[in-house]
Amino acid sequence: MLDHNLLGKPVLIRTIGEILVGRLVKVSPQGLELEDASWVSEMGRVSNTLLHGLVRPNLAENDATPDWECLPDPISVNRGVISYWTAWRHSLPKDQT
Prior knowledge:
Elements: E1 10-15, E2 19-27, E3 31-42, H1 46-52, E4 67-70, E5 75-78, E6 82-87
Antiparallel strand pairs: 1-2, 1-6, 2-3, 3-4, 3-5
């Protein structure tokens, strides 16, 4: 069950097909709504991304380069497709990569 204490705070959501980061603004039985959201096409190693955010890794680390697109409008995510979610302890992306 998603902690309602995350309302208004940044979260990372991994669905069966996508990764999203954004500010959680609504929780309903059907899904979650994010504002200031970005679709993340590649985040590299999950633990590195959760620890350091969406940053360009050192090329010597042989890790994939995070890539994202800022979404212009709020987005709703159906609960049935969510694999996991967690607090996002970093700034939300403001620019395209």
